[in-house]
Amino acid sequence: MFELGLSGGISHSTMATVQKGAFRADGKLWIEDDVLHFSPFNEDLGYGPYAIELGNIKLVTTGWGKGAGIIPVTPDAIKVITYDNDQYRFILANPKKWVELLSPNKG
Asked: In the chain, where are the structural domains located?
């Protein structure tokens, strides 16, 4: 989703779910000023907020959201790997578009 007219340089945003193993947290994912942000709706769960500099992203691929952390249940996910070897899995709409937006070699 492209957001027009918002201050702060937000270029794209979507509702997303971050997945860490078997645990998930729903929230908002957005790109602002060369940073990928995720803010969970419930911060008490401990899954975010995250701020990932776009220049620190080594690889972005499509993938699967998993039930119980092991059973593939939805193909609508992306995996973000940083140069620090941190890994984030986000389940969201239009994962191919987000791979294009976030890939370091987008040309």
From this structure: 10-102
Q: How far is CA 13 from CA 48, 51, 66, in A?
A: 16, 14, 23
CB 42 within 8 A of CB 55: no
Tokens of 102: 């976030």
Query: Taking Cα atoms as reference points, which of 59, 74, 58 lies closest to residue 24?
Result: 74
What CATH class has 10-102?
A: mainly beta
Distance between CA atoms of residues 37 and 35, nearest Å: 6
Q: Which residues have a Cβ under 8 Å from the Cβ of 73 and sit 6 or more positions away?
A: 64, 65, 66, 67
The pLDDT tens digits for 11-53 are: 788 999 998 877 889 999 999 989 999 999 988 877 889 999 9
Phi first, then psi: what are they for 103, rounded to 5°? -65, 135
